[in-house]
Amino acid sequence: MNERQLKKSKSKEKGKERRTALKAERARLAAAQLLVNQANAMPDPLSKFPFFNKYERNGLSCTLICKRVKDLDPDMLEWAIDLCKQNMQPLYEKSTQGWHENEKREEMMEDAAWYLMAIDTTSEKAVAFSHFRFDMDYGDEVLYCYELQLEADCRNKGLGKFMMQVLELMAFSNQMHKVVLTVFKHNPDGMAFFTKCKYEIDETSPEDTYEGSYDYNILSKLNKMKPTQKTSL
Ligand SMILES: CC(C)(COP(=O)(O)OP(=O)(O)OC[C@H]1O[C@@H](n2cnc3c(N)ncnc32)[C@H](O)[C@@H]1OP(=O)(O)O)[C@@H](O)C(=O)NCCC(=O)NCCS
After folding, report:
1. pLDDT tens digits along 210-221
2. Do strands 178-184 and 140-150 pair parallel, antiparallel, or not at all (unpaired)?
3. Average pLDDT for residues 43-62, to the nearest whole number?
4. Is 148 in the pocket of ligand 1 (CB under 6 A)?
5. Domain N-acetyltransferase spans what residues (predicted)?
6. Which atom of ligand 1 is nearest to 181's Cα?
7. For residues 127 and 121, what is the distance between their CA atoms, to the nearest angstrom?
8. 157 contact partners, CB below 8 Å, separation of at least 6
9. Domains of the chain, each with CATH number or no CATH
10. Which of 50, 51, 81, 128 would give a disulfide with 118, using CB separation of 3.0 to 4.6 Å?
11. What is the pLDDT of residue 41?
């Protein structure tokens, strides 16, 4: 084989490798999307875990329920939107994004939204919630925690950590690759809490450069039972 023929054969080989890798990546994405669809099709992802629908510790007694936004009691949804405003408006106002109430309301009411609610067993009032979604994120199947919000008098009693554990249980039992969330850098309490819950900076978290900086971190916890299958495309 002369040099020209050798070059041609090498480039043919490379093309073949690339097509094989593309095919594998397409198959991986389709499989990931299928897992997301299956998780979203469940009537109640918490029903498989009867030991996790009660939290009775440190003076709190709560029942946990999990519902899609369309099945949530409208008053409970309004309470969640209000609590989110109370807890988050000052932090958003300090951020480059600013606070946009209607956008937040719309986000919390989108069809894809799921809610994990903690309801006080005596008053029957909601005291904490997480808005989360089963979704694709940068090509990975994930449970994305959009919000975790507790009423002030229920904090520091282990409920937040318990609710994160419930989200992880629902994520990993449905073969999600990781649990992901965004937290403002100027929310030191939130950062300390998620660090305590063993969340780490995610590979998709934007890095500060000399051109600009970001006022949030993307954190995640990986599903240890699921090895990364991403191709090198
Ligand atoms: C952040 C928040 C969800 C934490 O929930 P919580 O129920 O108060 O936290 P927990 O009691 O479960 O704490 C779990 C662990 O984190 C630690 N922790 C919680 N807040 C902390 C803080 N500000 N600094 C240091 N550690 C903290 C606790 O000491 C505990 O540690 P342990 O497991 O060793 O006992 C809750 O305080 C809240 O709703 N804050 C307002 C809204 C918010 O900031 N949400 C998160 C950003 S999206």
Report:
1. 888 999 999 999
2. parallel
3. 97
4. yes
5. 67-221
6. 48
7. 10
8. 57, 58, 59, 60
9. 3-222 (3.40.630.30)
10. 128
11. 98
